[in-house]
Design goal:
The chain is an all-alpha fold and 137 residues long. Helices cover 70% and strands 0% of the residues. It has a domain of 82 residues. It has 4 helices and no strands.
Length: 137
Amino acid sequence: MDNNNEPKEVQPEELQKSYLLENFEAIIEQIGEGYGAPLQEELIRRMEKTVAEFHEDVSDLVVQLKEQSEKRQNTLKQMLNSDDQEIVDEVVDIPEEREMSDYERRLENMDSPKKDNQDKTGDQKKEKRGFFKRKKK
């Protein structure tokens, strides 16, 4: 019995290359014969280089993804098998004092003088009275 649920095999490189060349030749015919051979050779060379670089980048990303996945699985196993507090201390390193960003420092500096000035001026200034609360002469 033939099983039709099996995935189809990927086309060989030669079939893919011939398909691309046919489409490329159709485009070259529209451009004109003056640019034909040199342009075609240069574009084919660049396309092959681009595909090779892409393949290399994707391969590197897949390797990194596998490594990270294995690392996460190992960490999860350790968390399940050992004392929770020990693993939390090892996995999570929380610095005691968090360094403030420049923006946070500026905001804090802007707020602190206002508060200090309000406290000082509040003691020195007399309470202002509204127009209708003034004493009559």
